[in-house]
Amino acid sequence: METSMSLELELLAGLRAELTEYEIRSEVREDVAGLAVSTGTPAVYLWVFVSFSGRFFSWNQGNHQHPVNDMAGTARRIATHIEGFEVLGGGEA
What we know:
Layout: H1 5-19, E1 26-29, E2 34-38, E3 45-50, E4 56-59, E5 64-67, H2 71-87
Antiparallel strand pairs: 1-2, 2-3, 3-4, 4-5
């Protein structure tokens, strides 16, 4: 089941709103159907996408996934990922 672009963008916008609870800045990028999440390192972003099935958010080159029906849980995991990234002083998000 392939998701429609508008559904993907809607899911990413919802996740963006959840990330604000952790004071994490992000931007929905319609041109790539992804969410660019600020890492604290200038010009370095953690990219989040919706899987082809529309069932999961995916980040870190697909190494991390979380169900789209748990946006709060996804935001919490991404916040933890970003914190670890910043503690390490950058690197691959």
